[in-house]
Known about the structure:
Layout: E1 10-14, H1 19-30, E2 34-41, H2 48-59, E3 64-69, H3 105-120, E4 124-126, H4 142-154, H5 157-160, E5 166-168, H6 176-185, H7 210-222
Amino acid sequence: MTHNSSLGPEAVVLLSGGLDSATCLLIAQSEGFGVLALSFDYGQRHAIELERARGLAEHYGARCHRVVKLDFPAPAASTLTDRSRSVPRHALGADAIPSTYVPARNTLFLAHALAWAEGEGCRDIFVGANALDYSGYPDCRPEFLEAFERVANLGTRAGVQGDRFRVRAPLIAMTKAEIVRRAGELGLDFSRTISCYDPGAVGEPCGACDSCLLREKGFREAGVVDPTRG
C-alpha cells in the first residue's frame, strides 16, 4: 500500500474483532484519521475474531487491513494457544495474571504496528488496552504502553529525528460500561464484534470466560442489550 497524504492523516489501529478494538477504530476515525487496521493470526483458539476484524474493517471503511501470521514460539504457555488445556470459566479475578495471558503478545503486536506506521509515514498507533475492567494482563497497563512509546521514539529513525510516535490507548481508564456507551455514541454495531475466548463454531459466546464476563458486566451496567447474547 502506498501512503497517500492527500487523504489526510493515518493511524495504525490494532484490530482484534472485539468490542474494545472496534471502539478504538471508530475513535480514531472520529479524530480525523484514516485507519490502517492491523490484526494477527497467532494460533489463537478464538480465530473467528479475525473474520469479525475483516468485517469491521470493511464495514467502517478502513483504508487498509492487514492480517499478519505470527508463529508464536511457545503455544503451551497460554490457554488461548494451547487447545489441550481449558480456558478458565467463572474465574474472573481468581488469578492476578490468568492462564489466558499470552507472553509478550502486545509487545509483538505493537512492534509490528510501529514498523508499519513508520514505513507509511504515520505517527499514531491506537490500541484497545484497558486497565480498569480487565483480566490483569501486564501488557495492558499504562506503564507498559508509556514505556513502549519511549522505545518507539528511541529506536526508530523518525523518533530520533524528532518526528515522534504516540501510542494511543483511549480506553485505558474507562470502565467496560463507559466503553459500551462510547461505542454506541460512535455508532458501533455490536453484533459485528466478538469478545469470547472460547466461542462455538459460528462464534456463539461461552458466556463464562473472563472476556465474556467483562463484556456482560459492561453491557449490563450501561443498560444496553448485547445483540450477541441470546
